[in-house]
Amino acid sequence: MASIRRLEKHQARTAYLFITPTVLLFTVFTVIPVFMALYLSFTNYDVLSRNDWIGFDNYRRLLEDSLLWKTFQNVFLYSIVFVPLNIIISLLLAILLSRTWRGVKLFRTLNYLPTLTSAVAAATVWIWLLHPEFGLVNGLLSYVGLTGPAWLSETRTAMLSIIMLTLWQSVGSNMIIYLAGLQGVPDYLYESARLDGANKLDCFRYITWPQLRPTTFLVSTMAIIGALQLFDQAFVLTQGGPANMTKTPVYLIYQQGFNQLQMGYASAQAFVLAVAILIFSLINMRISKAEEPIV
């Protein structure tokens, strides 16, 4: 009995030893900066001079900041297009590439490769693809008799350009997640459904989709968080323009903090964004739970 207790204590000490570096790094680079940012959000810190405590003045200023709410409107419009398309395209690719036909591994790899590309590098390439005069996209449109727009300079197409880029980069990783989810669906469910006369659409509606609800919750939550944190693509492609149509909350925080040196106000904006991410994640969780069948 005593030897078992010594073994348990030794295992516990070993476990604490292995997790200590991770906990220390998380504390130093995440927990402490979060609390420092929370403190700065109640100050007028501008990097150059000493910071004074101003209470809730930064948060009161947020209520009157029309540009901040414009950025939230932008990412909301971005999300209602990006998130459903992300789920649909990723799921369709996963279903298509879940079959064991020749060369399927190559196509899986090709669809996943854009995920490995740096966002800045990908955005730089897409600037040339969407060039109004020499871009490949407008070149292809000209072959069918259409005149392509100035994708990144027009208010009606600038956000659409960012959506195309982010979809191209994100569907590959979500496809892999859906592939893993599809492999977890028991084959006997499909066999029983076919014996009852169910077609492929019935199998998807009553078996595949319900079984993939946890996977879809994960994909949709990550897509929503990614949409609210959109920065790299908007920064490289459009610099928030034209007319602030593609400016995002993170881009605005970057400008307030590093361009205008209003670190206190930028910290307040960051916490508002964090609350928004939490709220939308909880809403998505409630919706996912409401769709679960009652057993």
What brief labels describe this structure?
single chain; 295 residues; mainly alpha; 13 helices
Structure characterization notes:
The protein has 295 residues and is mainly alpha-helical. Helix content is 74%, strand content 0%. Helix 12 (249-259) packs antiparallel against helix 13. The chain starts with a helix and ends with a helix.
Secondary-structure topology with pairs:
Elements: H1 2-40, H2 57-63, H3 66-97, H4 104-116, H5 119-129, H6 136-143, H7 158-183, H8 187-195, H9 200-211, H10 213-228, H11 232-237, H12 249-259, H13 263-291
The major beta sheet can be summarized as: none
User: Could you report the average pLDDT, rounded to the nearest whole number?
Assistant: 89
Helices and strands: which structural class? mainly alpha
Q: Spans with pLDDT under 50 lasting ≥5 residues?
A: none
Q: What is the CA–CA distance across the termini?
A: 44 Å
Enumerate how many helices there are, as a single number: 13
Broad shape: globular
| Helix fraction bin | over 70%
Helices and strands, in N-to-C order?
HHHHHHHHHHHHH
Number of strand segments: 0
- Computed over alpha carbons, the radius of gyration is 24 Å
Please state roughly what percent of the residues sit in beta strands, choosing from under 5%, 5-15%, 15-25%, 25-35%, 35-45% or over 45%: under 5%
Task: Please summarize what this structure is.
The protein has 295 residues and is an all-alpha fold.
